[in-house]
Write a structure and sequence with these properties.
The protein is α+β, with helices and mostly antiparallel strands. The chain is built from 17 helices and 32 strands. It starts with a strand and ends in a 6-residue tail after the last helix.
């Protein structure tokens, strides 16, 4: 049986180091892990940062169990971590003892709790000096709303840390028993009391006898972890290889049995009335897998699948191999699968080929090459006959408060930075790609990187013709630049995205003439229209109506006037050349000629009438305003107010966050000030906050800013 186990926690809490020492202790790798170097970091940028930016996958055998360890890069770049974590049965939350409880660990634990992922806590770097373990445990209890329960006592502390003594001993046959010694009695009593609170029968037994039998403690401990009522913890120092084996023991003895959890969760998802997955309950319900990570490199693409279920052979009970064809539940597309022999298991940067016909067991994490580009991280792949024909649309929702990697919805990533991205201009020494399909190469490279990185969006701005890059922060933006250079030898320049200003009419004007008359021999062109134009409330857009009576302009030519009017409004107003909005144009009169009137003549008349109306009525400049939602800790409220004020915005509401502990603050901020907002938030809040933004409305530009905006407008003609 394999268990999918995620390592989560703040940056530099020791997740990757712990994974490497597990491999070393089980003789999977022979070189001792060393600080600052990682055999798991496969991207050159990771090596230069000495920190993971993508998830890594390893297989660790331990006492007859197979641990599929998903090493996630929480902290600065949590988007990939969240997707990978959603493929886990359980998680180890690492908290660096010298650094204390940090934002990454809090966010990771909160996500585990919301997703129903059972957790084990590991205090790492226990060999460092000046530790205050009691304070850390108190902070964890306050933030996690659960009291940590020790599975061990520590032998020494700080620089004198010598290892751990487990409360429960695991023998070679997989049996657990209570350890002996006076030095564990206090911790045993603490675990006993926690277990007693899980079950009414155990509580009665404990109150009557003031103790529980070891087998009752073991059973209650597992039940408490499964119910989310107990958070067990261990002590480790991976760099000294202390507590690593004991951590693996705790994983296989304390965390819930993965096969039981999968069967229960899959059954709940399949029986959910809100939207069935189209499969029969159970881990033998036909092949199903979730894409938890995507790798794109010079060799092509790899889709990392977490296998949820598979068929068994009716004769010998063994699980089947990969199916020949699957369906993407998001798109309904049928996809040819490569053979098992062309697929891999992963151990960091190493790819281990699977044998032809290898059995694919629920819980396996495998890498499948060359799936279509429209296969995305978080997609669900299953066999065609698992999808019922009458269920054309498949909605996979939460069910019975039990979530599974099949039913967890993909999480939206807060993209807090938007910039333009381009190759350096002509004449630059860096423009190696220019003149040889450089722009196409850049677009292709960014598209490939966006397949890997869920927090990266590449868009084309139709108004400016520029390529826009949306990402999490300024640091993330620089990471993209480094990876473009390392992987594709592309140098890029970033710029501030163009602000989509608008213009509108100041005062109403009436009976404005638009006249188009052209005679150059033969049939001419003639069209005359009269319009009223008036300003509307913010957000009303453009309204056009006709009050033509008596057929002074025929119906087809009324449509021609409207096309001309709308086109001229889009071409821009007289102030700065930005599109005009929030106006009503009323066609009130006109003239036509029985021979010379044509569609093009009335389109031109409409344009001329709009230009004249804007000149007479005056134009004022509007700026786009964004609604920004901050998710922060309560003690950072003052910093948010300062940031919003400095960006010429204002707070509209402050409420407790529905997504977890902390506050949700909504504000309105000019779009022109959004460029450096993520870096300002990161600096003021030490990386502990995030925000999302959407367009809200347009409002007039302050008078002291108009002249500069007009001068810098690419559409302005002086």
């Amino acid at each position: 049986c394999s268990s999918d186990l995620a390592f989560v926690g703040h940056s530099h809490s020791g997740k990757t180091t712990m994974a490497e020492w597990m491999l070393f202790d089980e003789n999977i790798i022979t070189k001792k892990p060393s600080s600052g170097e990682s055999s798991l970091d496969s991207d050159p940028t990771e090596a230069s940062r000495h920190s993971s930016i993508f998830s890594h996958f390893i297989r660790v055998p331990h006492r007859g169990h197979l641990l599929e360890v998903l090493d996630t890069p929480w902290g600065d770049f949590p988007s990939d971590a969240v997707a990978t974590l959603d493929g886990a049965d359980s998680a180890v939350v690492l908290v660096s003892a010298p650094d204390g409880l940090q934002a990454g660990a809090i966010n990771a634990y909160q996500h585990c709790k919301e997703a129903g992922i059972k957790t084990l806590l590991a205090l790492s770097k226990m060999d460092r000096p000046f530790l205050n373990i009691n304070e850390i445990l108190a902070n964890i209890e306050t933030s996690f709303k659960t009291k940590p329960v020790p599975l061990q006592v520590r032998v020494g502390e700080g620089e004198d840390f010598q290892g751990v003594k487990s409360l429960l001993l695991l023998d070679d046959d997989g049996n657990l028993k209570k350890n002996e010694g006076d030095d564990i009695e206090e911790a045993w009593l603490e675990m006993e009391e926690a277990v007693a609170m899980v079950d009414d029968e155990l509580l009665v037994e404990y109150l009557e006898n003031m103790e529980l039998k070891p087998e009752q403690v073991i059973k209650g401990l597992r039940a408490g972890v499964r119910q989310g009522k107990i958070l067990p913890f261990v002590y480790t120092s991976a760099e000294k290889d202390l507590g690593v084996a004991e951590l693996m023991d705790a994983i296989i003895t304390t965390l819930p049995d993965p096969m039981e959890m999968r069967e229960e969760a899959l059954k709940a998802a399949c029986e959910n009335e809100q939207g069935k997955c189209g499969m029969e309950p159970g881990v033998e319900a036909g092949f199903a897998a979730r894409v938890i990570h995507t790798i794109v490199d010079s060799f092509g693409s790899l889709s990392v699948l977490r296998v949820i279920s598979n068929n068994r052979d009716q004769d010998n009970g063994s699980f089947h191999s990969l199916p020949q064809e699957v369906v993407n539940l998001r798109t309904g597309d049928k996809i040819k699968m490569p053979t098992t022999a062309n697929s891999f298991s992963l151990c960091g940067k190493d790819r281990i080929s699977l044998q032809d016909g290898a059995h694919i067991v629920p819980g396996d994490v495998i890498a499948v090459p060359r799936l279509p580009e429209n296969i995305h991280t978080n997609d669900i792949l299953t066999v065609p006959d698992a999808v019922k024909e009458e269920e054309a649309e498949i909605f996979i929702e939460k069910a019975a408060q039990v979530l599974t990697p099949l039913s967890r919805p993909a999480e939206e990533v807060a993209l807090m930075t938007t910039v333009t991205v381009s190759m350096p201009g002509e004449g630059s020494k860096k423009n190696k790609g220019k003149g040889a399909g450089g722009d196409e190469k850049l677009t292709s490279a960014l598209a490939a990187m966006a397949r890997e990185d869920l927090a990266l969006r590449v868009e084309h701005d139709s108004a400016s013709g520029k390529l826009l890059l949306r990402c999490m922060s300024g640091e993330h933006m620089q990471l993209v630049a480094s990876r473009l250079k390392d992987r594709y030898d592309l140098d890029v320049e970033f710029g501030q995205p163009p602000v989509q200003y608008r213009e509108t009419l100041v005062k109403k004007v009436t009976k404005v003439e638009g006249r188009h008359k052209k005679q150059s021999g033969g049939s001419g062109q003639f069209g005359v229209c009269y319009i009223d134009m008036e300003p509307l409330e913010e957000g009303a857009g453009i309204e056009f109506e006709s009050q033509i009576k008596g057929g002074v302009i025929s119906r087809p030519f009324i449509s021609s006037v409207e096309r001309g009017v709308r086109e001229q409004l889009q071409l821009g107003g007289p102030l700065a050349g930005y599109p005009v909005t929030d106006v009503r144009i009323t066609l009130v009169d006109g003239k036509m000629h029985s021979v010379d009137s044509k569609d093009i003549a009335f389109q031109s008349a409409g344009k001329l009438a709009v230009k004249a109306a804007l000149e007479r009525g005056g134009s004022r400049l509007l700026q786009p305003m964004d609604k920004v939602t901050f998710l922060i800790d309560e003690n950072l409220q003052g910093e948010i107010h300062t940031i919003v004020s400095r960006h010429d915005g204002y707070i509209t509401s402050t409420n407790p966050s529905e997504a977890g502990p902390g506050l949700e603050i909504e504000a309105i901020i000019p779009n022109a000030g959004m460029a450096d907002l993520s870096d300002a938030l990161r600096s003021a809040c030490a990386g502990e906050g995030q925000f999302s933004s959407v367009f809200s409305h347009y409002q007039p530009v302050p008078n002291d800013l108009i002249e500069k905006i007009v001068e810098n407008s690419p559409n302005h003609h002086s």
